[in-house]
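Q: Structure tokens for this one, please.
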Amino acid sequence: MDFKKLRTYSAKQRKTKVSLSSLAKIGKKGEKFSDFLDTLPDFLAVRSLKEVIAAITKAKKSNKKIIWGFGAHFIKVGLSPILIDLMKKGFVSCVATNGAGAIHDFELATFGRTSEDVSENLKTGMFGMVKETQHDMNEAIAEISDPTIEPRGLGALLGKKIRDNKAPNREHSILYNAYEMDIPATVHVAIGTDTIHMSSKVDPRALGEATFNDFQTLCFEISGLESGVYLNIGSAVLLPEVFLKALTVARNLGNKIKNFTAINMDMIQHYRPAQNVLSRPGGKSYALTGHHEIMIPLLYQSILEEVYPSKSAKGGRRRTS
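A: Here is the predicted structure, written as tokens:
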């Protein structure tokens, strides 16, 4: 091997991935959030975050669908006020959650607190045996047996129940606010996965019908996902499976859903959302990894800065995309 015969070329001809303009900027104490956002290095997850911000704000400005799917952990780490504010500001076309998410939302509205010590209560066989939660939620679901009762979906039935009960903390409930604002809120359950199924009050036929109606609602919402955004936040199995089937139904019925943005946000990237949300559907996809209690407020504030930039900013600021 004669190294003297190796070919070389000038750095001026070489394409590179890193340049001085991409490096982190040094922040200043007391600076605006938009200035902080511009100090982040323009690589990997930061670039993905900025592209996600651009996709959500573009969908909002174009009046396209922005569907938020989330698991129970989203509620348990205190993020309900953020999603509710986004609902009020027009950044939410539909919300979808699982049964546990609905339970924590319902309990926050009713008691102002939720999330028990599972290990401790499991020892005594009392895990999930809260009579008020079991009674009120199952009573709300059973209303579907009355053909004169509207609405017919699980999410809306629970939102209506929170309103009818005048739950003292209802302003913090996603389901209640969705019901009041007429935003579709769908709840997708598998029998036996939720604590309210361990009750003599449960009506399995009503439960199945109500959650199936919500599946149909989600199919309808996803039928308009072209040029829109779907977010899966913290659901590792159930919502990714439901999303894939709803997308199939929507396409099977002749709806064009090709150009859209899919986002998966979680503390780790699981197989099912990586396949069913990001890879198989065929849209533009992003995986943002991190703790919800940090990532969602960061995303929220970034969206607000993009859509409602400071009027006092001189000369404008660098775009996020």
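A few notes: The CA atoms of residues 243 and 277 lie 7 Å apart. The chain has one domain: 43-307.
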